[in-house]
Amino acid sequence: MSLIRSLIVFCVLGLVVLSCFDPPTYSPIPEIELASLKFKEVGDVSEPDSIIISLNFKDGDGDLGLDASSPVDQNIPYNNKYYFRFPNGTLLNYKAKRTNPNYDTLPAFVKPYNCTNWEVFTEDNVVKDTLYFQLNPDHYNIFIDFLVKNADGTFKEFNWREEFAYPDCGIPFDGRFPILSKDLNQPSALEGTVRYGMVSTGFKILFSIKTLKLRIKIQDRALNKSNEIETPEFTLQSIK
Questions:
Q1: What pTM was computed for the model?
Q2: Phi and psi torsions of 206, nearest 5°
Q3: Burial group, residue 125, by CB count within 10 angstroms (0-12, 13-18, 19+)
Q4: How far is CA 109 from CA 106, 112, 163, in A?
């Protein structure tokens, strides 16, 4: 239980450092390549360790980054979730799924609940309602998948949302880096390096001496996705 809580608390993303140049003309679809990958071990089991990725990027119109403090970047198309309303304005809840055949194809909902399609609202520790939602992948602009090597040499994605049960739901390492351009109203090509940090007390406990790879891509404000890259195989010790 303490491990899962630590994962939730410390899956805080967004350590970004960048440097920009005056590049030639590039495609408006961003392009990335891996610059470096490091594991920073704190040594105290109560403190989070870090996996830090540095990505070289190129983008023809420079529309990279989202502003977490801006209301614009919290609304469509960058909102976190989509809820569904009936014509009378009420939200679609689990009662509708159980009692209305029009909604029986919605994802299953069984206790002890889940964190991917059904949001539980409580009052004084009593469940008052359970609303259906869909996560919006465009809420993020950097996407990180953890791939774990199997005994047969294949890799399987470690799904942070599904590995832990409600209410200790895991949080994926997809996240946001801030706006990189000085003026989004005057598009111009950008080239530089983004440094992105992921922290958790659970890295060593979950992955220990396992062999991993990371699968990475970014997305611009126009929702253009970059090329997808994979890191070389590594263990945490090998990238310290």
A1: 0.82
A2: -75, -40
A3: exposed
A4: 9, 9, 17
User: What's the Cα-to-Cα distance from 7 to each of 163, 200, 217, rounded to whole Å?
Assistant: 12, 6, 22
Alpha-carbon span 88 to 97, nearest angstrom: 17
Q: By three-state DSSP, how is residue 94 classified? A: helix
Q: Each residue of 135-180: pLDDT tens digit? A: 999 999 999 999 999 999 999 999 988 887 776 777 889 999 999 9
Beta-bridge mates of residue 81: 135
Which tokens hold the place of 156? 């399987």
Helices (H), 39-148: 94-99
Using alpha carbons, select from 178, 179, 159 the residue that is nearest to residue 169: 159
Q: Which helix (H) or strand (E) holds 7?
A: helix 2-10
